[in-house]
Amino acid sequence: MNLIENVFDIAEDFMKDPKHVTIDYVELSKTVRGMKLEKPLEFPKKDTTDIYKTCIMELVGGAINYCYWYGKSTIRPLDSSSTKMYDVVKYAFENFNKTGGIHSFDRCIDSVIKYLSLERFPLLEERIKHLNELRINGQQFTEKICDQKCDLESALIDMVQIFPGYASDMFLKRAFLFFCQMNRNFGWFEKEMNTIPVPSDYQVPKMLHHFWILDYSPELKTLIDSETLIPKGSLMECEIRAATILACRQLVKETGWTVPEVDAYFWLRRKEIFIPFHLTVTSDY
């Protein structure tokens, strides 16, 4: 099975006869013309001196990079956020030693769990479960990635087989984000970066809606504007994410940019646009 093509197939199935979300390809082409006048945006550079440590921290962070609230986005336990989560991982792995000892991988995972619990991150039990999945083969998987002895599809297959938490999302958002991060940090998987789906979350569709690329039904728009929770796996939620994947695939094609570049263009500009995004309690994003 080609997991990458399977995600696109799922997205296309949802969008064959959409009830709540449509893609306006005329507005998409207008946005492309504007994007071509700009340079792709870049995420802030990370310290990549220790390649192995950077990769292992991305694997850990990606395993728990989801859902920082239970409802309104402005009401979060102790101001939890992705930035705060990555700060926790960075702090827990500050003295990480790949060979073991008091700063072993297991000890660092223990520290991450302790800090997440103290900070009362949402979906804490799910996060602990996903972190514990990394203990057995997390380092071996990271070594394989760092050795670059496999293509992206093979590495993706390994990831979803070894770590069920990464496999649970039908659109594999966090899995694809991990490989985007590898490309951003090190330029790896360059030839395959135009073949994967965009990591489909909540901020990119917000931006696509702002640019008139995604059009929402009155019912869905009312729910989003009123910050009403949309159930995970509902037709509304799946159509939002499926349409995001297909729209971004077309944006990649028309701009000539990579998937990480298209993703960054919208995600890094998210705070410039003051409209609500859809709210879903989920471990997928």
Please summarize what this structure is:
This protein has 14 helices and two strands.
Secondary-structure map with pairings?
Layout: H1 3-14, E1 21-23, H2 25-36, H3 51-63, H4 82-92, H5 105-118, H6 124-132, H7 134-147, H8 152-162, H9 164-167, H10 173-186, H11 203-210, E2 214-216, H12 218-225, H13 235-255, H14 259-267
Antiparallel strand pairs: 1-2
Q: Could you explain how this protein is built, in words?
A:
The chain has helices spanning 3-14, 25-36, 51-63, 82-92, 105-118, 124-132, 134-147, 152-162, 164-167, 173-186, 203-210, 218-225, 235-255, 259-267, and strands spanning 21-23, 214-216. The protein is mostly helical. It folds into two domains: 3-43 and 195-272, no CATH class; 51-190, no CATH class. The chain has a two-stranded antiparallel ribbon.
Q: List the secondary-structure elements in sequence, H or E.
A: HEHHHHHHHHHHEHHH
Span between N and C termini?
24 Å
Name the structural class.
mainly alpha
The biggest beta sheet, please? 2 strands, antiparallel
Provide key terms for this protein.
mainly alpha, 2 domains, 14 helices, 2 strands, globular
